[in-house]
Structure formats: C-alpha cells, structure tokens
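Still learning. Any example?
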Amino acid sequence: MSAAWWGRESLDPLVPDPLEPPQLATPGRAAVRAALAARIAAFTPEWRRHTPGDAGDALLGLHGELAEPLLERLNRMPEKAFREYLRAAGIAAVPARPARATLSFTVADAAPGSALIAPGFQVSAAAADGSGARVVFETERALYAAPGKIAATFAQDGKRFFAMQLGGADPAASNLVFGAAPRPGAALLIGLSGASAPAPNITFMVHLTARGGPPPVIAHGGMAAGGVVAQPIVGWSFFDGGRFEPAEVIRDESRGLLQSGLVELRCPRTWRTGIPAGVTAPKPLRWLRLQLVAGAFAAPPALAFIELNAVTASAARTVRGEVLDYVPDSDGRRMRVTQRPVLPGSLQLTVDEGAIGAAAVGAQPWLEIAGLDASGPDERVFELDEVTGELQFGDGMHGMQLPRGMRHVVAQRYQVATGAAGAVAAGQITSLMSSVPFVTKVGNALPASGGHDAMSIPEASRLGPQRLRARNRAVTVADYELESFAAQGADVTRAHGVGGTHAGLNNARVPGTVSVFLLGPRAVATPPYPSQASLDAVASHLSSKVAPAGVEVVAAAPHFHEVSVRATLAVAIHADFGEVLRATLRELDGYFDPLAGGGDGRGWPFGGVIKYAALVRHLIAHVPGLVALSTLNLTVDGEALGACSDFTPQPHSLLWPLPHELRVVEKELP
C-alpha cells in the first residue's frame, strides 16, 4: 500500500474511560468558592459590592480553604466503603510473604554419624534491602545431614566411565549424566566421603541446568504424568559388598531427573566403602547410583550440580510462649501479638480456661479460622489479622466467648514473616544461629526466591472481589491463577491457568491436570521468565493447599513469540519527527509488553491475537503528531507476514518485542 489509508480523522473521539469511583462532590477550593458566590443573590441580596479584598471575599476564600480537605475525604468514601465491605467479608490485604531458599549443610568428615537438623533450625543473612539488618531463615522440615561431602561423580555408559564435576555451584553448567542419547543401563555414580555411614536417611538437591530460555516445568500432586504418557523409569541403588542394592526412595521431587528437586533415600543398614568395578577413584568411598532402567527422555537430562544435605528454608522467625494482652476498648474480645506480620497458619494458641464446676479444664488449644459467623457458641475459635496481629474472639453466639483472666492466653508459637528483605542473593546465607554438633557450614548456591512486602491497598482492592470468590480454594481455573500470588517463596507478576492441559508434555490433553503459566519480575533484555524456585513454590502451594485431592498442578513459563514492526509513519509537517519516532517505538514496545501491554495496560493477553487494525488505531490514538500509517508489516519469529495480516500465536503464549524498523514521511493534517 503506497498511500495512507487510515488516519487520525477516522478515530472515534468518544473512547470510554476506565471505570473510576464516583465523585460525590466537586473537589477544590475554587469550586467551593464558585458555588457559594452563586448563592449570594438568593441568600444575601443586600451584599451588592463584593469586591476582591473585602471581608466577605476573605470569608469566601477561608470557607473554600477549610472545605477543600473535607470534600477530598468525602470523595474517598466510596473507595473506603468498598474496602470495608471486603473487610466485613473476611477479605484483607495479603500480608508480607517470606522468601524461600534451598540450604546445603556441611558436616565434618569425622562426625560419628548423620547430624539431625530439626525443623526451625535458624540461619541468617544480611537483608537484601541494604538496611544492614539480619534476616533469619528457618528450615521447613527435618534433615539428617550426612557426614562428609560429594567427593567424586562418574557417568557410566555401558562399560565406560567418565568423571564429572557435579559438586560445584554453577547453575549454567551442563553435564549430560546419561549421555547425549540416553539408553537403558546408563547411570550416574556419586561417591561420598565421611568416616561414618549416613543414617537413617540421606538427602540431595538435584539442580538441572539453567538455560537461557524458560526454566524446566515443575509438577506437583496428582498422579504422575507417566500414568498417561510414557516416561523414563530411573532407579536408585547403594553400593555395598561389591554390588549395588536397590534403595528405598522416600521422596523424589525431581521426578526422575525431569525437573530440579529434592531426593531423599532410606539408607541401608550397612553401607561400606568401596570402589565399583570400572571406577578410577583414588580411595574407597560410599557410592550411590542413579540408573536409567527403562524408557527414554524427550531430551537428555543435563545437570548443573548436586547438593548434599539440602533442605528448604523460609525467611520467617519463630516466636514462642508469648503472653497476649487485650486491645484497649475491645470489650475483652480482641488481643494482639507483639510481632507482625504473622505468617498465615503459623499461630498456635492456648487459653487457660480455669475450672468449670469441679473439673479443672486448664490450657486448651484454640483454632484459627477465616470467619466467626459460621461458628457455634461452643467452638474454641478465633480470627487473625496477619497484618495488624490482632485476634478476634467469639461473642458467645458465633464462637465461644473468651474466658476472663490475666495472662491466660498464650501464643505457643507463631512465625513473623520477612518480606522483600529476604530475597537475598546466592552465597549470602552463611551464618549459623542454631547449633548442632559437627555441622560446620551452611550456604545457598542459588538466590532466595520470592519475598514480598504486604500488598498495597489499591492492589488489594483490585483483587478483593476475586479473592472473595476463591476463598483460598480452587474451584475454577481462575482460582488457580489468583492463588498463585499467595505462594510463599514465589516471585510472580502474572499467572494464567489452563485446565486439562499438561505444560510439560507439549500442552497435551491430560485429565486431572491444571497448568499454570507464570511470569516473573521484569528483566533487562530478556522475557520475564519466572525462576525455577518460583515454579516449584507455586506448584507445591497450589497442589497441597488449594487444589482438590488428586489434581496435578503443573507450573511453567509461557512461550514467547518475538515480534517486530516495519512501518512508514505519516507525520504532521510541523511535528517533531524525532519525538514522533521515539514515541512510536515506546508505544510499540509497550503495546506488546507481557507485563504492562495490551489494550488495558495489564499485560498482553495469553494467546492474544495481534489484530492489525487495532494496532494501527492504537498507535494513531496514542502518538501525538502521527497522522497515519502508510505501511505496517509484522515480523514474527523471524518470518515476515503479509500486509494487513493478523497474527494468531500459539495457545497460552505471549509476545516479546524486538527492535523495530520505522520510516517517517510528511503529511498535511486533514
């Protein structure tokens, strides 16, 4: 097309604005003054000479100045009422969410056995916000830390053995542990040092190679995908007495090297040192073997490194045995903890109820619930506002009334969440705050993921109606999207759920599966891929706390189509050509932006079609000085599309803008 075919004159001038809260009164002191001046003739007809500077004029100005803040507050009443409605329905702002990190402990070689690291073991790091404070991380589960370290690793292909380096901490390292074309029988051998045999369990963290593109898909819950689509079968075994014996797998979050994850094995009763045939180790070690038993991988598994004695930890500090005080003027129904924000679900409360009749009741546990309205008069329950730390007890009709007393309500345990300050970098968690014999060191090979401060009031108001529908349970696919933002340790900016589709199997139709495509924070020059830790946190949270039993939750990064535009801009003669060019480039990048693009500014829709006409109209409407577009052609994934063509992306995919090619010509305004 050689001539401008669609110009600014074709735009509809009546474009509806986004819905805003209603204005109950015209704000501003000038509006107040004008409204009063219009009433002078009716209410004070004797005041005929109202000139600037006289006493009456000064009173008008004073009244306008005093009324202005009142009107501003009056106009905020609809927004305030909306928030109070949400609060009455039990919907409050999401409190701070702690970051999560994978820790690796080192136990001295001379230790007489494995060291038990109990849940809640504390380590610390300098805060990520640069405040100079210390952030406390606590382990989430028990860990039997084996003595020694990974001293040698070998890949086995038939009768050939190849030494590998899997004890580092480089997430980009790539080790094809089963070779470039994995066949049944291929194996990975791991040799452990240490004077004593580990017992009763041993735990590893398997890190797949972090590639330049999206991270590997993570799945939790439900039935394994292998029940629907054939997957490779791998087996663990211990080397003892000159041969390998099968190992009991307690849990395998890696799903047989399909994703990064923790692997926990039951140790054998006897586990002696030795050297398997074909291995060129300098001294006897305790050996583990991971072997491909049957099947084939879609792509050969590439491992970056393996961590011994790994466990997940969250940036939350535990407070124990705190006696609660009443909130003033609360009629004995409200109390408050001293530390906040409280990590949801962490508060364990007891109330000493004294004696009822001749029987001593003593301290009884009370249960935290979402709302008291559905509770009976004999139920020992309370509500908790995690942000303010306030507890609300029943009134005798909806929930049992709190017995009178002093120092009788005790928070036996609760955790205080650390927000964005917990998102520390790799290698920063090095300080041991708790103590266990023979545990000498701790570290985090990868950055802590997630860590968010409390949700802002505007964001809470926007998401409030959706949270009111979800109620922390996933019934519809949209509920999975919403609850993804509540996952601890996840840094999520957008989420898109799809039912009956398995993202890890090329979006194959798999009943009982929900895939959630996630975006992470904005990156400098790459699409906003989520971290693998974020995928794991979301999949684990949704499958264990939100989804119905039996549903498999798959967390994945979406596919991005690379889009660029080649266009000729018809610009008004007296416009600044350079500024029009720069503004058009900004609008194109912004329009295709996965986080803030699209027509509503909330990100390009997942799987959204690029409509040629809508793109042209958007540019003309938002770029001052741009009169028309003579030509506009799209290039997607390196392929040029025809003139005036729309583009339909792959399902559930997004766009990523590349540099554009623009040419400017002059045109008279119509």
